[in-house]
Amino acid sequence: MSEREHGHRVTAVPGSQHVRVEIDGRMVADSRRPVLVYETGHKVRYYLPPEDVDLTLFESTDTRTTCPFKGVASYWSYVGDGSGTHADVVWSYQDPLPSVEAIKGHLSFYDTVALVAVDGEPPAAPEV
């Protein structure tokens, strides 16, 4: 069955918003080239190129999850400067499904731990 038959849709589109991410008051990402992911039942998520994230502050983990609409996600924990960690706060799809190929290798942050600040409103979700 297609996503539309299930009533669930996922769309990834390039954005131009300025996205900054802080964890524990420390800037960990700064990007003007996010990929916006619109998914039924979720607020828009911002996926950032790895070049715009300070990856020295994160360690990969063994955590993997599977989304039937995006693929298998890998996770990283925030280790910062050693003063505290946050487990599995960042995820990425290294080999996403073809319908969301634009997010390949990009990183997204759980906003329950990270402060994700966005300048500019996201465009309305595209009609598919």
TrEMBL record:
Superkingdom in the source lineage: Bacteria
Residue ranges occupied by any DUF427 domain in the UniProt entry: 19-111
Protein name listed in UniProt: DUF427 domain-containing protein
InterPro entries: DUF427, DUF427_sf
Matching Pfam families: NTP_transf_9
Signal peptide residues on this chain, from the entry's feature table: none
Species for this entry: Streptomyces silvisoli
